[in-house]
Every structure is written in C-alpha cells, then in structure tokens.
Amino acid sequence: MADSDVISPVTGTVWKQQCAEGQQVTEGDTLFILESMKMEIPVEAPASGTVSRLAVAEGASVDEDQVLCVIAS
Fold it and tell me: CATH classification of 4-72, choosing from 1.10.8.60, 2.30.29.30, 2.60.40.10, 2.40.50.100?
C-alpha cells in the first residue's frame, strides 16, 4: 500500500503535536493542532497506519500544503 502524506491545510504554527514516529494511528485521529490567525485547526490522519516520518516539530512555522508527517499503511 502507499504512504499517505499529512498536509497542512493553512499557513500557521504547529501549536500541538499529538503523534510520534512509530505510533499507530487510525483514520480521523488528530495528529496536530495548528494555530493560524488565533484559530486552532486540527489536522487529522487521512488513513490508518504507522507514523513513519515527522517533518515538523511543535512550535514550527508551516506553509499551506506543507507535509507535516507521513503515514505508512
């Protein structure tokens, strides 16, 4: 099966990281909470699997469409 990239929907800051490399996740689990314009935006897992790579850390600035992490199915 293919890996799934978890993409930032907005430009903002990683306010909370709620996943770790090697962690099993289920589709719909909240992986990150981004802060943009004083709003909190949850980013959910698009598929079930294992977080194989984290591309950002808590406190990092991110751009819209930037890869936050990769989930291996």
Answer: 2.40.50.100
